[in-house]
């Protein structure tokens, strides 16, 4: 992998290796298994809000944005936020990548759904501990997970408290290879390569998603602009990975630009692409 820092308006396409089975149909959007449908479950909604665990950099502006209906979540709300993101990403190629493995071919759709939700519970919990988690709309209509400048989750305390360590046991052998040996190092190394010396001082949009029932209301735009406003005031860049090509034009309208494409390459049917995008401070989006 190249180690040079890339400008935000430069596209560096990393050519993928062939998928593990090159004779299978190669489609960037094709899933490796039949879609799974979540069982009907009520969403946990909790009214109390605490911002004690959110970095000081983010709290003041996040709370001040309450007029836009944006809330900062505390640890008591992690399950509701996780379920909302699980619904938003239930057919996402990257999310399916860790579940649709050959050694879990005998799993039912409900078993896969339960693990899918659990993964988001671990991730949301970790971001409430060390990052910033915001929501807008009723019943967690849209949720965003951010890592503000100067923060990270690479410590044993966060892994233990959030439950991320459980993935070593809950994922299959192939799932563990995909998540811990391929996915996590690839994301870490790519971000460091793209952002260079700005890696520590930039914002990182880890997840943003809208429940199917809340789409078309501009919620994701609100959540993103909540942080782009802060980033512009502080002169900071924002980094993200997009797991679906259809989202790229949306991010471009918010000022993000593609700078690299990376691939997850252990799938049986096709490689899974992620678009790396960066928003420079003060950049206007496409119209």
UniProtKB/TrEMBL annotation:
Source superkingdom: Eukaryota
GO molecular function: acyltransferase activity, transferring groups other than amino-acyl groups
Pfam families xrefs: Acetyltransf_7 (PF13508)
N-acetyltransferase domain ranges (all copies): 151-279
Region (Disordered): 17-40
Entries under InterPro entries matching the protein: Acyl_CoA_acyltransferase (IPR016181), GNAT_dom (IPR000182), Trichothecene_AcTrans (IPR052523)
PANTHER family: GNAT FAMILY ACETYLTRANSFERASE (PTHR42791), N-ACETYLTRANSFERASE DOMAIN-CONTAINING PROTEIN (PTHR42791:SF1)
Protein's name in the database: N-acetyltransferase domain-containing protein
């Amino acid at each position: 992998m190249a180690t040079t820092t890339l400008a935000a308006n430069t596209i560096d396409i990393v050519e993928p290796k062939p998928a593990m089975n090159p004779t299978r149909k190669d489609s960037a959007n094709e899933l490796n298994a039949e879609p799974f449908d979540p069982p009907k479950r009520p969403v946990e909604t909790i009214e109390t809000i605490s911002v004690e665990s959110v970095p000081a950099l983010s709290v003041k502006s996040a709370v001040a944005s309450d007029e836009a209906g944006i809330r900062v979540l505390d640890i008591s709300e992690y399950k509701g936020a996780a379920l909302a993101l699980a619904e938003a990403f239930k057919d996402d190629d990257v999310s399916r990548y860790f579940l649709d493995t050959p050694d879990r071919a005998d799993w039912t759709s409900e078993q896969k759904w339960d693990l899918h939700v659990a993964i988001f519970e671990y991730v949301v919990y970790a971001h409430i501990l060390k990052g910033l988690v915001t929501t807008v709309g009723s019943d967690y209509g849209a949720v965003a997970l951010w890592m503000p400048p100067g923060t990270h989750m690479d410590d044993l305390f966060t892994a233990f408290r959030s439950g991320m360590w459980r993935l070593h046991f809950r994922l299959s052998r192939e799932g563990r290879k995909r998540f811990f040996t391929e996915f996590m190092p690839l994301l870490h190394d790519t971000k460091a390569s793209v952002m260079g010396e700005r890696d520590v001082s930039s914002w990182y949009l880890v997840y943003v998603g809208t429940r199917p029932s809340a789409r078309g209301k501009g919620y994701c735009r609100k959540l993103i602009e909540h942080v782009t406003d802060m980033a512009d005031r502080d002169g900071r860049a924002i980094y993200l990975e997009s797991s679906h090509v259809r989202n790229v034009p949306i991010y471009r309208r918010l000022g993000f630009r593609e700078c690299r494409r990376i691939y997850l390459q252990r799938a049986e049917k096709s490689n899974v692409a992620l678009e790396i995008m960066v928003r420079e401070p003060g950049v206007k989006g496409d119209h």
